[in-house]
Specification:
Elements (H helix, E strand, L loop, with lengths): L17 E3 L16 E5 L8 E6 L6 E6 L4 E5 L4 E4 L14 E7 L2 E9 L11 E5 L6 E5 L17 E3 L7 E4 L5 E4 L7 E2 L14 E7 L2 E6 L11 E4 L5 E3 L11 E8 L4 E7 L10 E7 L5 E3 L12 E7 L7 E6 L8 E4 L7 E2 L5 E2 L22 E4 L7 E4 L4 E4 L4 E4 L9 E5 L8 E5 L3 E5 L16 E10 L2 E11 L4 E4 L7 E2 L14 E3 L6 E5 L2 E6 L7 E3 L8 E3 L7 E5 L4 E5 L7 E2 L12 E4 L7 E4 L5 E4 L7 E2 L5 E8 L9 E7 L5 E5 L7 E2 L14 E4 L2 E8 L5 E6 L1
Parallel strand pairs: 27-31
Antiparallel strand pairs: 1-10, 2-57, 3-4, 4-5, 5-6, 7-8, 8-9, 9-10, 11-12, 12-13, 13-14, 15-16, 16-17, 17-18, 19-20, 20-21, 21-22, 23-24, 24-25, 25-26, 28-29, 29-30, 30-31, 32-33, 33-34, 35-36, 36-37, 37-38, 39-40, 40-41, 41-42, 43-44, 44-45, 45-46, 47-48, 48-49, 49-50, 51-52, 52-53, 53-54, ...
């Protein structure tokens, strides 16, 4: 259930050249000694679109993966897991967590290259280029004269980055809107490649792939229309003169070259095509091979799309030590479900690997999506065959990486790779789970253990795609409610702390058009459900009946007082006004006015166990506190910016809950903790653990002092504890 619209619009600084293993070190708050924190990722198991997988051609057991919003990873055979390589990218570099392309140097096993940029729109800023000599342990960074789109249409094509086989210092990078780029110094500087004939457009796909066949380079072009005489594949033998490849296939089924792979033993180049770049919007496609010696083309399409069975072709990989053995994937095949086709005779005959596949998702149960059996996959545009084992195949989907070593038994190969976009976090004060998360694409998860994917998978009855609301009754923590995009209702409740769920007996008619956040009063007797483009609704009978609340500020997120069940709050970001109700949500009236306004990302939080103790995170305006239920707010001294704030167990001897803040005091954005009601702050993240944008949600654990859970936009739930 991928959500291609996941994005966060923030001001991004221009990338500058630097040598780094993380962002520049930052000072700690005066007088505060930073605790040593150990950071780990709460295990879910993927959940995002893996857009590229690449085995190193000369190092057994070494592979890399790229994702659309969650960075890059290295596969380590000794630990049987993926190691994240880009977690050092911080707040200002949020747009660089999307990896447009990656490349390795066959002659230098330590060299790894990444082209970074999640969105190509002007508000996202320029892309950046990272190069490493030690497999991604440390990086050199360079600004790119181009914007990249790792989370846009065409993100599964490629690879768009290539090390020139004639000269390892020469790199080629295909861009969407800025043409073909070339670097003669391993990515330290870049310029437009002279002689490349195709002209980029501001809205097109540009160069979709780069591949070497011997000493000849090939470039796919995504902006041709598939008619004869308008080529979409070019080549160069000298790195200077480019020409269209003669005889290339035409027509809708070969409009966009998606991926390519070269069989160096047979000297044949295999290409997958579709009528759109994907991962959505493809209705037809084909597979062709080019004899690079004779120039002859052969149509080797395994199955021709047609009728109700519409799809394109995506990934392609060859078995380096077994001539004529090739694996390709279908893509966007929703009716018959996507598959991998494999040939051992150069494409004369194919076998669908899905037809005999035995899928084991016991390690990541969410992959059942609330059904009896998992799907073989969708959005399959990344396929890789181990050059040392032709039956060791990996493929990426919109949710995970599947792998096999016998072509029959398949299981997720995703340990260490987490790409969830997390929206809401709850750490219950009682029960078996210390964490419940509301997420993009995979709804709500109940984390019995932080070191294993939730055994119950996604919350069901109903199944949600993206969660929009999650709330717990403070005085009755066994009662939890959630809202989101569901197939059979957009709201649900739990009476056992989030283990099992049931849909609300009814829901407002407006809920089907866009479910928003929800709150429940401290005793769980009243529900207040807000909507982004309509009136809020109240229920006092567990969701059986709903009534409009005309006085509620439209679009605001409701917050329940954790002690008084008659009181709820809402912050109107449009006018900078705090509203409250004292009659269980029937009527709301304005209390504090003149607060910061104009930013929908402002967050209001209520301190647990204390009535009327409100905290307002006002982004660049700072942090504000009210101790009288919102009648008045006071700016918290020393906090220059506040993006999200949460509470955890109080420090020994302290009476107020610990505070956890993503914000800035006398240094840039960081994860901070205060044990003295915001009197002093201590930075608890570090230069190696930044995870891009982390302003969505944060919460401490009410049972473990010092433990904090942090929502990221593409790196799942990160949790930290004092070492």
């Amino acid at each position: 259930m991928p959500d291609p619209s996941r994005r966060t619009v923030l001001a991004a600084t221009a990338a500058t050249a630097a040598t780094l293993a993380g962002p520049p070190a930052q000072a700690h708050a005066a007088g505060a000694r930073p605790p040593a924190y150990r950071w780990r990722t709460a295990v879910i198991g993927g959940t995002g679109f893996v857009t590229g997988v690449l085995f190193h051609p000369t190092v057994p057991g070494l592979a890399y993966a790229r994702t659309d919003i969650g960075g890059a990873y290295r596969w380590d055979r000794d630990t049987d897991r993926w190691t994240p390589l880009t977690d050092h990218l911080g707040w200002d570099d949020w747009n660089l967590l999307g990896v447009e392309a990656l490349a390795v140097d066959p002659a230098h096993p330590g060299r790894l290259y990444l082209a970074l940029g999640t969105y190509a729109q002007p508000w996202a800023g320029e892309g950046a280029f990272l190069r490493s000599e030690d497999r991604g342990a440390t990086w050199h960074r360079t600004a790119l004269p181009a914007r990249l789109g790792a989370n846009e249409d065409g993100r599964g094509t490629g690879e768009r980055l290539l090390v020139d086989p004639r000269d390892g210092d020469t790199l080629w990078l295909g861009t969407r809107h800025d043409g073909l780029l070339r670097s003669a110094d391993r990515g330290a500087t870049w310029s437009r490649a002279a002689g490349f004939p195709a002209e980029p457009s501001p809205t097109g796909q540009g160069v979709t792939l780069l591949v070497a066949a011997g000493r000849t380079l090939y470039a796919g072009w995504g902006d041709a229309d598939g008619t004869p005489g308008r080529p979409n594949l070019y080549r160069t033998a000298d790195g200077t003169t480019w020409e269209p490849v003669p005889g290339q296939p035409a027509g809708a089924s070969a409009r966009v070259p998606v991926r390519a792979a070269h069989d160096h033993r047979t000297r044949e180049l295999y290409l997958t095509y579709a009528d759109a770049p994907g991962p959505n919007g493809q209705t037809t496609g084909s597979v062709h091979k080019l004899d690079t010696v004779t120039g002859a083309w052969t149509d080797v399409t395994p199955a021709v799309p047609g009728g109700t069975d519409t799809f394109g072709y995506g990934g392609v990989a060859v078995a380096a030590r077994r001539p004529g053995t090739v694996v390709v994937s279908t893509n966007d095949r929703w009716a018959a479900v996507d598959t991998l086709y494999r040939t051992t005779d150069g494409g004369r005959s194919w076998v669908s690997l899905k037809d005999t596949a035995v899928l084991d998702v016991s390690e990541t149960p969410y992959l059942r999506w609330g059904r009896d059996a998992p799907k073989f996959g969708w959005w399959i545009q990344a396929v890789a065959v181990d050059p040392y084992d032709p039956e060791h195949v990996l493929y990426g989907t919109g949710a995970t990486v599947y792998g096999t070593r016998d072509l029959v038994h398949w299981a997720p190969r995703v340990r260490g790779l987490e790409e969830t976009s997390v929206r809401q976090l709850i750490s219950p004060p009682t029960g078996t789970a210390h964490l419940i998360s509301g997420n993009g694409d995979i709804g709500v998860l109940y984390h019995e253990r932080l070191t294993a994917s939730p055994a119950r998978g996604m919350a069901t009855d109903p199944v949600f795609g993206t969660a929009t609301g999650l709330a717990l009754a403070a005085a009755r923590p066994s009662y939890v409610v959630r809202t989101g995009w569901g197939d059979h209702g957009n709201g649900a409740f739990s009476e056992d702390g989030g283990r099992t769920w049931a849909p609300f007996p009814a829901q407002p008619a407006h809920a089907a058009g866009g479910p928003g956040p929800i709150a429940t009063t401290a005793d769980g007797r009243v529900l207040l459900w807000a909507f982004p483009d309509g009136p809020a609704h109240r229920s006092a009978d567990g969701g059986a009946g709903w009534q409009e609340v005309p006085s509620y500020p439209q679009g605001a997120t409701p917050v329940a007082d954790p002690v008084d069940p008659a009181v709820l709050y809402a912050y109107d970001t449009t006018t900078g006004t705090l509203f409250a109700t004292t009659d269980g949500g029937r009527t709301f009236t304005a209390r504090a006015t003149g607060l910061p306004a104009g930013d929908s990302q402002f967050q209001l939080a209520a301190a647990p166990g204390r009535t009327g103790d409100l905290w307002l995170s006002a982004k660049e305006h700072g942090l504000f506190r009210s101790t009288d239920g919102g009648a008045g707010f006071t700016a918290v001294a020393g906090v220059r910016a506040a993006y999200t704030l949460g509470f955890g167990k109080a420090a020994p001897g302290a009476r107020h809950p610990a505070l956890y803040l993503v914000g800035a005091t006398d240094f840039g954005p960081a994860v901070l903790r205060s044990d003295d009601r915001a009197g002093t702050w201590t930075r608890i993240d570090d230069d190696a653990h930044r995870w891009g944008w982390t302003g969505q949600a944060i919460t401490g654990d009410p049972r473990v002092h010092g433990r904090v859970y942090l929502a990221t936009n593409g790196r799942g739930v990160q949790y930290g504890e004092p070492a």
